Amino acid sequence: MTERPDPAPVRQLRLVVEAEDYEAALTFFRDVLGLPQEAAYSGTGGAQVAILDAGRATLELANPAQKRMIDDVEVGRQVAPPLRVAFEVSDTAAVTTDLVAGGARLVAPPVRTPWSSLNARLEAPAGLQITVFQELDPEAPRSPGDADRTA
Fold first, then answer.
1. Helix (H, G, I), strand (E, B), or coil: what is residue 101?
2. Residue ranges of the domains in the chain?
3. What is the rounded distance in angstroms from the CA atom of residue 52 to the CA atom of residue 34?
4. Quick check: 143 pLDDT over 70?
5. Residue 148 pLDDT
């Protein structure tokens, strides 16, 4: 058995989003949400890309029942497309206000979840539905499934 110098085979999760209005999306995610720009590149034919640092990345896989349950908790009805992006923030209420002022459409205001976070749902540029969430209790289960098992 050979040892790997890096125990994690995947070093970065990068979500690539096509944005028809590239400038509006860049302004929203970089300047309004505050994701630092790591790099930007342009190419022939007007090609442009910016790489924004979104902090630690995770991939959350949910079955349809879980997706429906999260929609019910956060919004009160089924609204999420198959892909929704979630950002952990330090103040959900303030960030939600800033994002709406910066061009997002509020889908549902901040709500306390059964897994002890404060979540708000928004429609952001580039056709992304996003959740901003604030962990309220560091001792609480970190996922909806954990909350179900401990209740």
1. helix
2. 22-146
3. 9
4. no
5. 45
